[in-house]
Amino acid sequence: MKLLLLTLATLLLLSQLTPGDAQRCWNLHGKCRHRCSRKESVYVYCTNGRMCCVKPKYQPKPKPWMF
């Protein structure tokens, strides 16, 4: 019984540690991906050439032009 519980705990832990997690960008508020989800938009590009997908609430607000 203890072996079964140890095996299940190990499998649960390994399922949480997924390899190939997306690289973080934009002050750790975005992720470098090939495609952004519907709720994200591209503001900058990552160093690996992928898009930095950031939620709109973390993007800076555009300032009006002052003449």
Automatic annotation (TrEMBL):
Gene3D superfamilies: Antimicrobial Peptide, Beta-defensin 2, Chain A. Pfam families: Defensin_beta_2 (PF13841). It is found in: Secreted. Residues 24-53 form the Beta-defensin domain. The keyword Disulfide bond applies. One of its GO terms (cellular component) is extracellular region. Residues 1-22 form the signal peptide. Its main location: secreted. One of its GO terms (biological process) is defense response to bacterium. It comes from the Eukaryota. The keyword Thylakoid does not apply. Keywords: Antibiotic, Antimicrobial, Defensin, Disulfide bond, Secreted, Signal. Has antibacterial activity. Belongs to the beta-defensin family. This is Beta-defensin.
